[in-house]
Specification:
The complex is a heterodimer.
Chain A (H helix, E strand, L loop, with lengths): L1 H17 L6 H7 L10 E2 L6 E12 L2 E12 L3 E5 L6 H7 L10 E9 L2 E2 L7 H7 E4 L10 H12 L5 H14 L3 H4 L12 H13 L5 E5 L7 H14 L4 E5 L3 H7 L2 E6 L2 E7 H6 L4 H7 L5
Parallel strand pairs in A: 1-11, 4-9, 4-10, 7-8, 8-9
Antiparallel strand pairs in A: 2-3, 2-5, 5-6, 10-11
Helix pairs in contact in A: 5-6, 5-8, 6-8, 8-9
Chain B lengths: L2 H26 L11 H37 L3 H4 L3 H16 L9 H39 L6 H41 L2 H6 L3 E2 L14 E2 L2 H32 L2 H16 L2 H22 L9 H26 L2 H9 L4 H30 L2 H6 L17 H9 L8 H33 L3
Antiparallel strand pairs in B: 1-2
Helix pairs in contact in B: 1-2, 1-5, 2-5, 2-6, 4-5, 6-16, 8-11, 8-13, 9-11, 10-11, 11-13, 12-13, 13-16, 15-16
Classes of the chains: A alpha/beta, B mainly alpha.
Bound molecules: adenosine-5'-diphosphate and magnesium ion.
Chain lengths: 299, 460
């Protein structure tokens, strides 16, 4: 199937060469770049060791289609970055992966999304269990108005993951440690999580997600509300978390995508335009739209 | 000139003032409107305010003083033997004069002296009104012409208008405040008079309430007893039952509306719930007394329970229904104010909807909900009509909801209804009760507002 797509891409190039709208046919030919009107995915959307597989996913908000026929694998223990201009459907796609879109009344999802061979949109799939396996970190840090301890303990408590207080304490401590927050908060676990700084709050939210030991963590622009130092902190953290978790991160910062991810997916107006190894996508994009975006021609 | 006509003329004059002010502003600018400090409309308003405010001030102060001055003049011209009557009789005569002049019923026979006084009164009144009309219009016209004179391109009409508007707004808010202070003071003074007759300790901690004092000192029960405890326990019992009904139902309705109902259901159910708050309390009253109470009585009899037909239970239940909307709409507001991000965070961790509501939304909204409940409680405590109609008059000191109890508000009503002398302890007791009720609800309201405000700060 990868082959088909590449072939299609080449057909598009041929089609494009016939098209008089191209500014510079010679350049297009030399880089064999896909014309900006093409909407089929170029690159390698599939992975050898996928944790989640998405096939022909379409998402609608009422009548309006927000995601068009997206097929993409999320590989085990990789960080995949999703970039693209705002409104292109990155968040919508990310929220399909843990069925957060269920909470939006008008939203309808079509297509197949599997996680470790379970169809997550199957009726027999328990959303509660799915969300325990696919955690999520949001754009704005959203700690609950509870103590730091209770924030972390929230997930383990509702899922009954621990048998007693000692085990719960351990989970809280290890989650905070893995989120790099333990030394900063260990003396004030009983104070409200909302009293932390923005960057600490976001790491608290990451710790809260880790505490239920998910396989996949989804992050929707986790640093967009943070200052550069807090951002650097989180980026380091993401790199460490890769050892144990699969991470899909939406970001509007191309530098961030380049720093933290192994693969990058570029979305445009609801279409998945290009997927590939991060360095390839940024240094040698195969699609004109991708190139336009990373060279800052729009966005 | 009739007062309404006068006011109408003033209004006409002020619209002319707007027109002239505006026109003058445009003309002094020499056609270059943008050279004016303010837009022409502001000069118009400025002229209107100058024309209207001083004349209205004269108008209202004249009316406030008119009555006294006219009466004084009439009294001075009364014949010697009437003028020297004792004060209480003199005021009767004056009342007669006024009533005859207005064409109402009088207490005594109208003799020639009185008739003379009446015509004097009438003529004074007419003169006064004519003088008022002339004076007011004069002031208005003077104000108008002064302000027109003052208009110049550099004059800061906008700032002046804004300033005057600000003071008008301040005046309005002070009226509300002073009214409250006035009410409190009047109740306070009467209550103090009561406490001079009955020691506060007896009133606050007495267990017996029977305010009926005999007319003559040698009759039985010549001194009533004024222990307010049975009344307050009655109020508390009924309010407690009401809250027991209203808080769970209101809260759950709010949760359903804000978390489960889709927008269509919400658009229908929310206004319907709020209709409950719009039903006149007297309707609740006879609903309680005529429908619910007999129903409970029969039901009780079939279970071998003795339910009084004026039981605290029935009154509390119906009152509870009445305050459901207070709890539900306030709770609905605070639940809606909990940011969507909180729900997303909880759902994202795999919590179900009810877990999210129980563990995140309710705790986050709790201070606001408590505020709503306290407001509902103060409403229940002060509620009068339902209890007057459905609760009893007997001041039983009991915690049994099946028995009849009476409340503070019911007693205030019964103490004051009918012809009463305003210097007996019985009548003054109503003011003491009113004062205590006021202090209680004020206290609750202050706490509620404080709690609600604290909550508001949380997410901003
Ligand atoms: N709750 C919603 N209801 C209706 N339309 C939505 C909703 N959320 C997002 N959309 C629409 O879907 C498209 C994709 O949005 P989104 O996924 O948020 O984009 P991104 O995260 O890439 O900025 C946008 O056109 C947006 O207007
Ligand atoms: Mg987004």
């Amino acid at each position: 199937m990868v082959d088909t797509i590449i072939t299609q891409g080449q057909t598009d190039v041929i089609g494009a060469m016939d098209n008089s709208e191209i500014d510079n046919p010679a350049e297009v030919e030399s880089k064999a770049i896909t014309h900006r009107d093409a909407r089929d995915t170029v690159g390698e959307p599939f992975s050898k060791d996928p944790r989640m597989t998405c096939r022909n996913v379409n998402v609608f908000y009422g009548e309006k289609q927000a995601i068009h026929d997206v097929s993409l694998d999320i590989g085990a223990n990789e960080v995949i970055a999703m970039i693209g201009p705002s409104g292109c459907g990155k968040s919508t796609f990310l929220r399909c992966l843990n069925r957060m879109n269920d909470t939006v009344d008008s939203c309808r999802v079509e297509g197949n999304i599997h996680m470790n061979n379970d169809d997550i949109y199957n009726k027999s799939m328990d959303v509660v269990l799915l969300r325990a396996r696919v955690g999520m970190v949001f754009q704005k840090p959203n700690p609950f108005p509870k103590s730091i301890y209770d924030n972390i303990a929230y997930g383990p408590r509702i899922h009954g993951l621990t048998k007693n207080k000692v085990e719960l304490d351990e989970v809280v401590e290890s989650s905070l440690k893995r989120a790099g927050l333990w030394t900063e908060v260990k003396d004030r676990l009983d104070q409200p999580g909302t009293g932390l700084s923005g960057g600490q709050q976001q790491r608290l939210c990451i710790a809260r997600a880790i505490a239920v030991s998910p396989d996949v963590i989804l992050m929707d622009e986790p640093c967009s509300a943070l200052d550069p130092i807090a951002t650097a902190h989180i980026e380091d953290l993401i790199d460490e978390l890769r050892q144990n978790f699969t991470i899909a991160i939406v970001t509007h910062s191309m530098q961030q995508a380049a720093r933290v991810s192994q693969r990058t997916a570029y979305f445009h107006l609801g279409y998945l335009i290009e997927v590939g190894q991060t360095d390839q996508v940024f240094t040698n994009p195969k699609h004109q739209l991708t190139e336009d975006y990373i060279t800052g021609r729009f966005g | 000139m009739q007062l309404t006509t006068l006011l109408f003329v003033l209004l006409l004059l002020s619209s002319l003032a707007y027109y002239f002010g505006r026109k003058r502003a445009v003309s002094v600018s020499g056609g270059e409107v943008k050279d004016l400090h303010s837009r022409p409309g502001y000069y118009g308003f400025y002229t209107v305010l100058w024309c209207l405010l001083p004349s209205l001030l004269v108008f209202s102060s004249w009316l406030a003083m008119e009555g006294q001055i006219v009466t004084q003049l009439v009294v001075q011209d009364l014949p010697e033997q009437i003028r020297t009557l004792p004060d209480s009789q003199l005021s009767l005569v004056i009342n007669d004069i006024k009533n005859t002049a207005n064409g109402s019923i009088v207490s005594g026979k109208v003799n020639s002296d009185i008739e003379a006084a009446v015509s004097h009164y009438k003529s004074l009144y007419n003169t006064s009104r004519a003088a008022l009309a002339v004076l007011v219009l004069l002031v208005a016209i003077i104000g108008l012409s002064i302000s027109l004179k003052k208009i110049s391109p550099s004059q800061r009409a906008r700032n002046a208008v804004e300033n005057i508007l600000k003071y008008l707004l301040i005046a309005c808010s002070t009226i509300a405040i002073f009214t409250t202070i006035g009410i409190v003071l009047s109740v306070l003074f009467e209550a103090i008079r009561f406490f001079q007759m009955i020691p506060p300790i007896d009133f606050l901690f007495g267990l017996n309430w029977s305010p009926q004092t005999a007319i003559r000192a040698d009759q039985v029960g010549s001194s009533g007893s004024f222990g307010a405890i049975p009344l307050f326990t009655g109020t508390m019992l009924i309010s407690f039952i009401a809250l027991l009904v209203a808080v769970p139902i209101g809260l759950m309705a709010a949760i359903y509306l804000s978390e489960y109902a889709n927008s269509k259901v919400r658009a229908v159910v929310k206004p319907l719930l709020e209709v409950l708050a719009g039903i006149p309390t007297v309707v609740y009253g006879f609903f309680a007394a005529l429908t619910v109470a007999p129903l409970f009585r029969e039901f009780g009899t079939s279970w071998g329970l003795e339910i009084s037909s004026e039981s605290a239970l029935v009154t509390g239940l119906v009152m509870g229904v009445m305050i459901i909307p207070f709890v539900s709409s306030l709770s609905d507001d605070v639940i809606n104010a909990v940011p969507q991000a909180m729900r997303d965070g909880s759902y994202g961790l795999g919590a179900t909807q009810s877990e999210t509501i129980r563990r995140v939304i309710i705790p986050a909204a709790l201070p606001g909900i408590v505020g709503g409940v306290l407001l509902a409680a103060s409403r229940a405590i002060g509620e009068t009509m339902i209890v007057v109609m459905a609760a009893g008059l007997a001041a039983n000191l009991t915690a049994n909801p099946l028995e009849a109890v009476t409340t503070v508000t019911v007693q205030i009503v019964t103490l004051l209804v009918g012809d009463q002398e305003f210097d007996s302890a019985k009548t003054l007791a109503a003011f003491a009760l009113g004062l205590m009720l006021f202090v209680t609800t004020l206290f609750l309201n202050v706490i509620a507002l404080h709690v609600v405000r604290k909550y508001r700060e949380q997410y901003e």
